[in-house]
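Propose amino acids for all 457 sites.
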């Protein structure tokens, strides 16, 4: 039994929690970081990083298959899943080691164990009571399922999908959002038959509709099957496979069913409600400055309603540490957080879609320009198609950027600066983009919106 006092106690060491701890320690606070599993959380161990390793392996498979097109003779011999696993685990282990070292070097006290909020100023971990002048809740999320859809056997979540030691011959994917399409893309590149089932009318349904449609065309061209607009009804499984039935009676069979229908907040039985924290369907409700209903208690990351993204967690963690330090950090609304879907093709976006911008500012008050990557030399060289759409307010700033094509995720940096800095296309137009890069395509869209297109008609 021990009692320890800190300026700040952070519950959960995922993207949101560890970012808060790092920034708080930089600002001179004493910090306890409570973690029941591994520092780094979902993103490092079972999310962003390992999935991107799989996607890179998938890209290499495609490149080796298509190499003759570029005059290189190779033979694609197949996927050695044990080697893929070693590569993926190696990346995660190295980043994990780096993060542990970083946290240690900042003098943060890591407390291993399951923590529970026991009052507005205390977290209990086993026999230890940690008291903080401020508490930051950052307990993250888990893979959700649908009512009546039980995970087990051949019905798996992304955690089990990562760990598979074989490439399925035929796989069903429930959910055409970010996680569903990433795994679909990997499996297809590895040679599987893939069938996606999405209840909404589009794949990547949170994107600008023109991007969703191009994405569907690209997936269709790759031979990835999908069913849209009809809801899942039930699944059965036996030792041969799974059969999914949709509400309209259609059935699909496969070796496995990946359930990728979103992530729920990990907040049950952690003492939040008992301490007086206002909750809604398991999420922690905060004001725009991430303060909960209990003074001195803040929340960050996936438990706060909105986009569930690692870099949103980083931003919120930094924000709360600075808020506690009285630095009055700026609020970044979810709409201005960049989003990337890392599949083949990639999708990257920020700000208002064309339709949402028309709703918000008036259809006659905005202009959208869609630059086709067919006009971009570098995209042609690497064999990708797609487009970059920029939405501006007339005589006003850029309020949305929506991109699709190989590698466009790497272009989101400039887009997020333009949107968050409320730049006008005329401000950006004089700063020419390097040739030949894919980045030029974004520059061309800005030039066109500034009334001086270079390579655009
Ligand atoms: C397959 C997949 C791919 C993804 N890819 C991306 C991507 O490419 N880019 C991106 O931005 N986002 C991606 N995400 C989302 C990203 O992982 C999450 O948004 C991010 O991890 C959320 O951070 P967090 O700190 O809120 O929670 P988490 O990362 O979930 O961390 C919460 C931590 O709290 C700990 N914890 C929980 N309860 C307790 C307790 N009672 N006591 C002690 N510790 C506790 C957990 O063990 C965990 O380590 C992906 C997610 C998945 C599942």
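Proposal:
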């Amino acid at each position: 039994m021990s009692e320890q006092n800190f300026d700040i106690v952070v519950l959960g060491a995922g993207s949101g929690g560890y970012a808060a701890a790092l920034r708080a320690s930089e600002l001179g606070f004493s910090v306890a970081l409570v973690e029941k599993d591994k520092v780094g959380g979902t993103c490092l161990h079972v999310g962003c990083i390992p999935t991107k390793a799989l996607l890179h392996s998938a890209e290499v498979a495609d490149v080796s298959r298509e190499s003759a097109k570029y005059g290189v003779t190779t033979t694609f011999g197949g996927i050695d899943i044990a080697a893929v696993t070693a590569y993926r685990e190696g990346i995660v282990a190295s980043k994990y080691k780096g993060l542990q070292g970083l946290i240690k070097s900042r003098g943060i006290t890591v407390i291993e164990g399951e923590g529970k909020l026991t009052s507005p100023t205390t977290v209990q971990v086993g026999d230890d009571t940690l008291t903080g002048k401020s508490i930051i809740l950052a307990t993250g999320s888990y893979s959700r399922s649908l009512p009546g859809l039980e995970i087990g056997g051949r019905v798996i979540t992304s955690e089990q999908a990562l760990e598979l030691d074989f490439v399925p011959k035929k796989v069903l994917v429930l959910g055409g959002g970010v996680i569903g399409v990433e795994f679909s893309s990997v499996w297809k590149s590895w040679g599987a038959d893939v069938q996606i089932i999405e209840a909404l009318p589009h794949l990547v349904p949170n994107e600008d509709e023109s991007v969703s449609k191009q994405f569907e065309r690209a997936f269709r061209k790759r031979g990835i099957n999908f069913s849209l607009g009809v809801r899942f009804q039930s699944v059965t499984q036996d030792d041969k496979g799974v059969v999914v039935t949709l509400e309209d009676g259609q059935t699909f069979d496969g070796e496995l069913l990946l359930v990728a229908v979103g992530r729920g907040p990990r907040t049950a039985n952690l003492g939040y409600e008992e301490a007086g924290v206002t909750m809604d369907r398991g999420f922690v409700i905060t004001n725009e400055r991430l303060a909960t209903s209990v003074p001195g208690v803040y929340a960050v990351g996936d438990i706060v309603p909105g986009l569930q993204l690692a870099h949103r967690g980083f931003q919120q963690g930094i924000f709360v540490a600075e808020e506690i330090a009285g630095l009055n950090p700026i609020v970044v609304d979810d709409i201005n957080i960049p989003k990337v879907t890392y599949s083949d093709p990639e999708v990257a976006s920020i700000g208002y879609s064309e339709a949402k911008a028309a709703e918000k500012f008036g259809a006659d008050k905005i202009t959208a320009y869609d630059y086709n990557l067919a006009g971009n030399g570098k995209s042609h060289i690497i064999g990708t198609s797609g487009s970059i759409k920029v939405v501006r307010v007339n005589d006003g700033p850029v309020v949305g950027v929506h991109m699709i094509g190989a590698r466009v995720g790497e272009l989101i940096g400039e887009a997020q600066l333009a949107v968050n800095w409320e730049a006008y296309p005329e401000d950006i137009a004089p700063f020419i983009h390097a040739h030949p890069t894919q980045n030029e395509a974004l520059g061309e869209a800005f030039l066109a919106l500034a009334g001086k297109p270079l390579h655009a008609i």
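The domain at 155-261 is CATH 3.50.50.60 (FAD/NAD(P)-binding domain). The first strand starts at residue 2 and ends at 11.
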